[in-house]
Tyr recombinase domain-containing protein
Amino acid sequence: MALAGAAPEQYLFTPLSDKIPLPTEVATAWMRGGLYLLNVQAPPGYLYSGHSHRVGTATSARAIGCQLDAIATLIGMRKKSTTTVLAHYVDALAEPDDACLELYDHYVVYRL
């Protein structure tokens, strides 16, 4: 997001300088419309929603070692406890891959 000129407190999927998180209903409509155009369907018994963005972001970032407080801020949940973020948004079984690293590596704090 730094390349786009966004401040650190900028929420994902929102216009630059907008300090209000994208409403779930808007994210849901946007995502379902895009998936429909791509002919992508959720697996049987599942329904994609606006929270799918948060889950994907949180899971990918955590898989490569991002701290939970950074993830909470990234997904617009900084006022929630890290326990809540971990319990509701992170799939602990996800494994890191190149896409995770490409998207979220700059949020990882590496310790020497």
Notes: The mean pLDDT is 80. The radius of gyration is 14 Å.
